[in-house]
Amino acid sequence: MDLPALLPDNVLADVLRRLPPCGLAAARSVCTAWRTAIDDRRLLRVDLLPHSLAGILINFPCTSITDFFSRPSTDPSISGKHVDYLPESSGKRSWSTIIGHCNGLLLLYHYVLNPATRRCDPLPPEPILMETKDRYEQWYLAYDPTVSPHYQVFLIPRFHPMSSRGDQIDPVRERSEWPPSPCILNVFSSAAGRWEERSFAREGEPAGSTIADMRLDQRCCPGRYAVCWRRSLYVHCQTNFVMRISLSNDTYRVIESPPGAKGDRYHLELLLGKSEKGVYCTLRRGDYSFQVWLLEESSCRTQWVPRHEMDLLALFLKPNPESTRRVGSPKQHPHGPWILQDIDYYYEYNEEDYYEYSEEDDEEDDMGTPLQDEELEWSSEASDDDGMCDCSSNYDNNGNARDTYDGDVSILGFHPFREIVFINYDFRRGLAYHLNTSKVEDLGNIYSESLDCVPPNGMHIRSSFPYTPCWV
């Protein structure tokens, strides 16, 4: 018997209206009638869902606390200083580095945290690996509040390189395919409250890689990310294929990387992310050239489609005549529309001198007038020249022209709802590159005082996560 059909629509809606947001999210997954009643009457408030970008969480080298790069207009209750409300253990605050983000929830090694609501869930001890010398497991978070109030944490195997100590290996095992079918993964479910071994059957073709191939791909930075999109978790794996894990039927599918992504693994960095139209990736080709690809999926075909080519070297060497701004060093232009909280420096080095943003700082900012709120909402046309910056570095400190650029450039991630790529510009500025116009916005100083003690060869961003608050 179809119980929802026994209730008139208005009565069902009145009952559902009494549920809290988490309850409404759970009710949407019960049946089509309930989902229709909730969606048609907009009972689940959109403003509570992760539909806006608050900033970027950044893990700098040699730091233990994740930093937060955001606009000052971000809700004051949202802060990167999550260490203030993490539980304490044995008299010492048990902070850690953020290792994942998904729709407003943050993943730490022992907690899942919502900075907007300040809810912090401890995770039980993860299963002990039997082959700790052979492999390790990377943690990934899957959460969609429009589908369910519950989240899952996946442990995805990664393989260590072969030891120079001559450890015994099984050649037959080294030649075995990875991932196998079925693929056994450890998964934590907040609904069950425990870790479980789950079996995932493969759909489609294998990756064509072996365990021995996995060992050859040991890139550390930037990290290998995952994307939660349409009830699937897309995970960037060793050898640059993507593993699409279904969150509804315990299956997985291997998605090959864009053409050319299986060459020199030390120079062809692939970075996975979510943006306006779904799953994207950037593919680094050389020091300053990046390709942007969009994943198109249909019932009969899955393929990467080229979306844009970013030539950042040309950008840095060619002045922008339309701009009144020029990117300089952090000391020359300490502020901007966005502010780096410099949290690690605050806790580890000099708490008394920790810098807090104030509106008066804008009066002293020689970068020009800060962007207004509507500009910070990322006009897709990026037509306001005040928001555009001149990134050219074709003049040295003496004003002499030069034709080379030797600074560091890396990708911080994608804007979740606009076709914009965030860029780390030589640890000096955070930039927003608009794919539709190839124009660039200067967001502000991204240099952390904690980097003063980092040697030049250690200057790299370990990982970064665009953060979307969720109030559910």
Automatic annotation (TrEMBL):
Residues 7-47 form the F-box domain. It holds the Pfam family F-box. This is F-box domain-containing protein.
